[in-house]
TrEMBL record, chain A:
Top-level taxon of origin: Eukaryota
Name under which the protein is recorded: RecQ-mediated genome instability protein 1
Domain RecQ mediated genome instability protein 1 OB-fold intervals: 75-228
Pfam families: RMI1_N_C
Organism: Coleophoma crateriformis
CC per GO annotation: nuclear body; RecQ family helicase-topoisomerase III complex
Automatic annotation (TrEMBL), chain B:
Single GO cellular component term: RecQ family helicase-topoisomerase III complex
Domain (Topo IA-type catalytic): residue spans on this chain: 168-628
UniProt protein name: DNA topoisomerase
Family note: Belongs to the type IA topoisomerase family.
PROSITE patterns: TOPO_IA_2, TOPRIM
Length: 247, 651
């Protein structure tokens, strides 16, 4: 009966073929050999789905999640602000630890959260607080200014499997990068492609060099959501005193 | 024997004007028991059904009857205020109106029919019904009709007199419902909060703290903005500006990202621009652009623009507009309609304005081929056309305010009948490093409606020199700029009207009253703007706000206005009330617009026959009573808010 079971190699290949990094053998073994005997005869497809889900929900900085020999990692000098430009020599899988919308003031984001808390964003309960004055708007502007809901660009804090961290900036709009409220959770995995540019310690994210794999690290995501407002308020409070430098 | 017909208008000025038109001047005037109300007797041929008749034209003075609770409910604390949700109410003619009622009953005797000439809106329909009730007391067999009219111009009035319709009972019911709800809810909450807060003593010991279901949401908007101004924290943002000097012109290219709130990122991007050394022109487009002429004038827009351009408050504007209507110069000023009926002869109205020395030439040009059908908005109340001048009025015949408002209505109307202003816009986009920048130049080619609509302007921007697609150049200068966000401005009257309108608080006809009420109650103050920094994001030397991202949400309205316009600040009591009710329950707080909006929609449903008076009364009273009980339970919270803001004066 063991003959039908997919091999570790098959499962690993199946995962990389859909763009995922190569997991550590220790990570895949329990999936191939579940303790519960009922799940025995599962086909590769099902195992792949299970492994993918577990991988995307894992903290890749833990040992025995990703294969250390088969995956690239961030170069050691990645965060060096002295380096004007650095190009990634291989693909690197990273996870998102933090997201900031740097296209909007933090205060605006705080106010939005307040409105949400007051239930003013719920359908049917919206209170219109600002009415656009269309008087002096000419036709050309009227048609181009409808992008109220899409925010950003975003600045991310990324981490590779060795625990090294680096900032990422959305140089060009990347689909699926956004705040957790817009669908990209904390712990979400990104594949930075070979050729990605890193300028002064910041990865410049562009659609052609980054693949959003998705996922979420439950605890981190929850903590981030709960702490977001307090964190924004703290930063805003700081800038009030005068430092003003968000970096 | 000649048929006698009794006509009753809503105000004496209308009675006089209509009598003048119908009689052709041969009128016999007599006094009534009320000094302000006259009876006008004359002959008129109503045509088909009624033929040649003897007419008595008189009027009421607004509502003829009032509602009140029975005498055992006069005491403010006993029975408790919540009993008012179900207490019996009575309708009666107040003493100061009894002479008017008697006059109507007396004149109804011997008459064959009653023609109602009250204003053609919901309130007018209800007043018409009150007139009907009194007239029937004098003559049970009276036939009742109503004249449908929307201005006091002669031909229109004659047409209305010969084509009377029936009273609309649905509208009568809607108003009756609204009156009953306002009475019960207003009294219950007013007594509750007054009784409660007086116990705090100090300035509140003898205060009368009235509640109105429109006033409170209106107050809520003012308080909400107040907190947003107070709590605001400025933040620094950075931007990149690229300048290219060409043909002696400094062309400034603005960053497509507008601005970022992270300095490190901006520095990195800036460095990459500099490293790229040269910029490339990626887009050059030239296209026609236009400034669109205004939509036909509704009441809300009239109020907003009068507060903005004429420095009147909305209530003044409505009073003046009504005077102009009563004098027959403009059409009925309470309308939601922003489209003219295709049948209307607008050119005839334009023709009347060519004699004016301010806009006569413009009107004349419209008559000589410049006329364009006005834009059509999406609102039609099916009762009145947009506000427009009905006859020409020379500048001398009016008071200063009347003259200014008439001028505005006329210029607005002529603008509607003109053409959009046209211009040419050139957009140039460049790529520099990883970043995009753009600039644009506008040339105004034809001013069209702007020539008469002096309230708006459109000017050429600086001329752009030639840029060619694909061209590569080294920018003369590139720099990082820095700016700070600034707080939104306090609400101005046009802002407040817009918010009320958008959230369904009040009708176009009553909004101004609610605003006046919260001032009168000292829940809010007004002061001239400029005492505080006006809204919008100051850009310092950063580029002007880019498309689609003009600063914070609050900036959108607050940025406009300028000096001379009043802004609204809540009093400490206003802040305390909103704070208290919000804390008791945000879901259905009295400061939020939902409950009232719902009520407003239910009135509409009654008018359209989708709901009955009984249903609506029952449902609304149940809702408000539930909120009332919540408030009663949370009265300690309300008291503590008042203690905090009013008694310590801390707000």
């Amino acid at each position: 009966m063991a003959n039908n079971r997919p091999t570790l190699q098959q499962l690993s290949n199946s995962l990389t073929s859909i763009g995922l990094p190569t997991p550590a053998a220790q990570f895949l073994t329990p999936i191939l050999h579940p303790e519960s005997q009922t799940a025995h005869q599962r086909p590769l497809q099902v195992l792949t789905a299970t492994a993918k889900h577990r991988l995307l929900s894992s903290d890749i900085s833990n040992a025995n999640v990703l294969s250390t020999s088969k995956n690239g990692c961030l170069p050691p000098n990645v965060s060096n602000v002295e380096r004007k430009e650095l190009i990634l020599a291989n693909d690197v899988c990273v996870q998102v630890l933090d997201v900031e919308d740097i296209g909007r003031s933090q205060w605006e984001q705080i106010e939005e959260m307040e409105m949400e808390r007051k239930g003013e964003m719920v359908k049917g309960r919206q209170v219109i607080r600002v009415v656009a004055d269309d008087l002096d708007v000419d036709s050309t502007q009227a048609t181009t200014s409808s992008s109220k809901t899409s925010h950003g660009p975003f600045k991310l804090l990324l981490q590779d499997m060795n625990g090294n961290k680096v900032y990422g900036f959305e140089l060009q709009k990347v689909p699926n990068i956004g705040l957790p409220s817009m669908g990209m959770s904390i712990g979400s995995k990104l594949m930075l492609r070979k050729g990605s540019k890193i300028a002064r310690g910041v990865v410049l994210l562009e659609p052609k060099y980054v693949l959003v794999l998705g996922g979420k690290i439950e605890g981190m995501d929850k903590q981030w959501r709960e702490g977001r407002e307090a964190k924004l308020r703290a930063t805003v409070g700081e800038s009030r005193v005068g430092s003003g430098d968000g970096a | 024997m000649v048929t006698k017909i009794l006509c009753v208008a809503e105000k004496s000025s209308i009675a006089k004007a209509v009598a003048g038109h119908l009689s052709g001047g041969r009128v016999e005037t007599s006094n009534t028991g009320n000094t302000y109300i006259k009876n006008y007797k004359f002959q008129f041929d109503f045509g088909r059904t009624w033929g040649h008749c003897e007419v008595c034209m008189t009027s009421v003075s607004g509502h003829l009857s009032a509602v009140d609770f029975a005498s055992e409910y006069k005491n403010w604390s006993h029975p408790p205020p919540e009993s008012l949700f179900g207490a019996p109410i009575r309708e009666f003619v107040p003493e100061d109106k009894s002479a008017i009622a008697q006059n109507i009953a007396a004149q109804a005797r011997g008459a064959k029919a009653l023609f109602i000439w009250t204003d053609c809106d919901r309130e007018g329909e209800h007043i018409g019904n009150e007139v009907k009730t009194e007239a029937l007391k004098g003559n049970r067999r009276l036939q009742v009709k109503r004249a449908k009219f929307s201005n006091i111009e002669r031909a229109h009035i004659l047409q209305a007199a010969r084509n009377p319709i029936d009273l609309d009972d649905r509208q009568v019911n809607a108003v009756a419902t609204r009156i009953e709800l306002d009475l019960r809810i207003g009294y219950a909450f007013t007594r509750f909060q007054t009784n409660l807060l007086r116990t705090l003593g100090g300035p509140l010991a003898e205060a009368m703290i009235s509640y109105g279901s429109c006033q409170f949401p209106t107050l809520g908007f003012v308080v909400d903005r107040y907190w947003r101004v107070k709590n605001f924290v400025p933040e620094t943002f950075w931007s990149i500006k690229v300048t290219q000097k060409r043909e002696g012109i400094n062309v400034v290219f603005n960053w497509k990202r507008n601005r970022l709130f992270d300095r490190a990122t901006v520095i990195i991007l800036f460095e990459r621009c500099l490293d790229a050394k040269r910029a490339k022109v990626t887009k050059v487009t030239e296209k026609g652009t236009r400034r669109i002429k205004p939509l036909p004038l509704t009441t809300v827009e009239l109020q907003k623009m009068a507060t903005k351009y004429l420095r009147m408050n909305s209530q003044q504007a409505m009073t003046v507009a009504e005077t102009l209507y009563n004098k027959g110069y403009i059409s009925y000023p309470r309308t939601e309609t922003d489209r003219f009926d295709k049948e209307m002869d607008l050119k005839a109205l334009v023709q009347k304005q060519i004699q004016d020395n301010r806009w006569g030439e413009f009107a004349n040009n419209l008559m000589n081929g410049g006329f364009n059908q006005p834009r059509e908005g999406r609102h039609d109340d099916k009762a009145h056309p947009p506000i427009h001048p009905v006859t020409y009025c020379a500048p001398g015949g009016l008071s200063a305010d009347e003259g200014r408002l008439y001028e505005f209505v006329t210029r607005h109307f002529l603008a509607c009948c003109s053409e959009d202003a046209k211009g040419a816009q050139t957009d140039v986009e460049i790529e520099y490093g990883d970043e995009s920048f753009h600039t644009h130049g506008t040339i105004v080619l034809e001013r069209n409606f702007l020539d008469v609509y002096v309230y708006q302007n459109w000017t050429n921007s600086t001329m752009l020199p030639k840029f060619t697609l694909g061209e590569v150049f080294e920018p003369t200068e590139a720099m990082i700029t820095e700016g700070k966000t600034t707080a939104p401005g306090y609400l101005t009257e046009p802002d407040l009207l817009a918010l009320m309108d958008a959230n369904g608080i009040g009708t176009d006809a009553t909004m101004a009253e609610h605003i006046a009420k919260i001032k009168e109650r000292v829940y809010v103050f007004t002061r001239p703007r400029g005492t505080n920094a006006a809204g919008g994001d100051s850009q310092d030397d950063a580029p002007a706000a880019g498309r689609g991202r003009s600063g914070g949400r609050a900036g959108a309205v607050g940025a406009r206005g300028g000096a001379g316009i009043d802004e609204f600040i809540p009093s400490s009591l206003g802040v305390a009330l909103v704070d208290g009710y919000d804390q008791i329950g945000l879901e259905s707080s009295l400061s939020k617009p939902f409950l009232r909006k719902e009520m407003e929609l239910k009135m509409k449903a009654i008018c359209e026959g989708r709901a009955t008076r009984e249903d609506v009364l029952q449902e609304s009273l149940r809702q408000y009573k539930r909120v009332f009980m919540d408030c009663k339970e949370g009265s300690a919270v309300l008291k503590s808010s008042c203690r905090r803001f009013v008694l310590n004066g801390a707000a």
